[in-house]
Structure formats: structure tokens, C-alpha cells
Amino acid sequence: MDPLSTMKNIRYLNMGNTIKLNLPVMKKINYTIFFLFLTSAILAQDNMFVVYSLKGNVTAVDNKVESKAKIGTILNNASVLKIPSGSFATLICNETSMFTLSKSGNYTLSNLKDSCIVKKSSLSSNYMKYIWSELTKSKGSPEKNRKAYMANVGAVSRSINNIWIDPKLDTVNYVSGTIPLSWKSYTDAEKFEFKLYTQPSGGNAIFSKLTDKKHVPVSELLKIIQPGKVYYWTAMVKDETNDDRKYLHYWPKEEYINFYNSIKKPEGANETEAEMNFRLGFVLEEAHFLAEAYQHYQKATQLAPAIPLYRFVFMSFKKDYEIK
Length: 324
Prior knowledge:
Layout: H1 3-44, E1 48-55, E2 59-62, E3 65-68, E4 74-76, E5 80-83, E6 88-93, E7 97-101, E8 105-108, H2 125-136, E9 163-164, E10 171-174, E11 180-182, E12 184-185, E13 192-197, E14 207-211, E15 215-217, E16 230-237, E17 246-250, H3 253-264, H4 273-286, H5 290-303, H6 308-320
């Protein structure tokens, strides 16, 4: 082989090795460029804001017109929010991120794009999507179905027997108070049997009750169930059977308090006591703590009776769970 051909082959091999050696590095560079581009795209987008909570005489300037900010006020990048001393405004950005402006000053919202980046928060993302949809809907539109924004509400199904138990009751987490374990009947039956078990299938019932009602309050089971234990319940028309059992978890109070404290106050966002109670009602219902959700929804309506949404959801909750 002549010297020129040898040099060409060596050059080719060296280039091939260089490419192979640098492939991992190139991949890292490409991933870095991609994420930088994605972050830049998020920051550059035209963000939309809605006022979730406020205190004091907060005003908004939009298209050179200044007006008093209200819950539900919709703002964009060009808007300016004026926060007087002792006041605050909590905003939701793009239905995914919530933050509070509490230091007095004038805030051009285009300068707050970093606050629109989604961060890990104790605030339920499902709740933010739900409240965003409520605050931004057209005036006069009907209230949205809150359950459509909740995770783990159960799957709709029809069993082969004459009893239907709402999927919302597939799981019930109980701590205190009471909530009815309810069902509906496809027949005109007058007598029903409620049964409680310690296992999801098989075994003998540890409690049985014949009733002419379509519910049994959890409070009637307190002499039988114990904190920290899991139980399974079902209902059937008298003299029929139903193998479809639902999950009942009696939570120890200490464990529930730890969970409750983790959701009580969202990091970096202020809200009024009424807003906090309404949010906690939603989050606790989503987590199947139904008796506790009831208490918070009720408290929200008591603290802010002029807000139709709170009243509507409270009444819907009572209807959904057969609470009189």
C-alpha cells in the first residue's frame, strides 16, 4: 500500500473513533439544548392570569384603564397589578401555578413569568384546574362538575344484582364524624341488607343489618370498627346476594393529622379562610375523606355566604352522598 493510501486510512479510522467517543457527549449537549429551548418557550409564551384571592384595595391596570381587582379578574402579560401596603393578591397562572404578591408596589405581569413555571406544591393541581375553570367561565354559565376534575372517583359499572353503589363510594376514608354508606335500588324493594366484612371476598360478615332505608351511617359501626383497620361493605335487596364490596379504611387520627397538615396551607400562596376551607373540602373529597370534606364545604359557605359557588358545591355534595 502506498504511503498516501495509508495516511487516508489512518485519517478515516481516527475520524470514526472520534465520532464514537463523542456520541455520549453529543447526546448530553442535545438534551441540554432541548430543555433550554423548552424553558425559553414556556417563559416566552403569553401567560394568562386570574385573581384567586385578595385582601385590601388592590387595583388592576389593563389597556390603560385602572379598576378595582376582584376574585375572577382575568389579566395578561401587559396588565399591571397595584398592591397597597397591607394588601395581597394571589394569582393563578395558566391554570397550573399559584403565587402571592404581598409586598406593596406596582407589578407588570410580564415580569412575573418565572412564577408561571410549575413547581412542586402541596396545592392540588386538580383543584387549580377546577377553580381556574370556574373563575374564567363566561358569566351565566352553569357551575362545572367538580368530580370531573378529581382523580380516583371510581369507574361506573352495573353489577348483575339489583343494587347500585355510586363509584364515589368505592373507597371511604373515615376519621370521625359520620357519613352515610348509601346505595340505590333498581327495584321497588322495601327491605335491604347491609353487611360489613374484614376481607374483600369470602368470609363471614362481622356486622349485618336489615333496613328499609338505602343507607347506613358510619357512626353505627363505631362499636365494631377499629382505627388502623380496613373493612369492606356491601348492600343487597333482602334475600338476594351481592359480592361487590366497597373499601372502608378507619384512619388513626395521628396519621390523618399528618396528612391534613401537608395540605392545609399551600406553599407561597395566601388565601382567605373561606377559600382555604373550600379548597380543603375539594382536596379531602378527592382523597375520600368525606366526613371531613363535608365539614370544610359547610364552613366555606358559612364564612362566605355571598359566593354562589360555595353554596352550589355544598348542596351538590350533600345530594351526591345522600346527606340530609
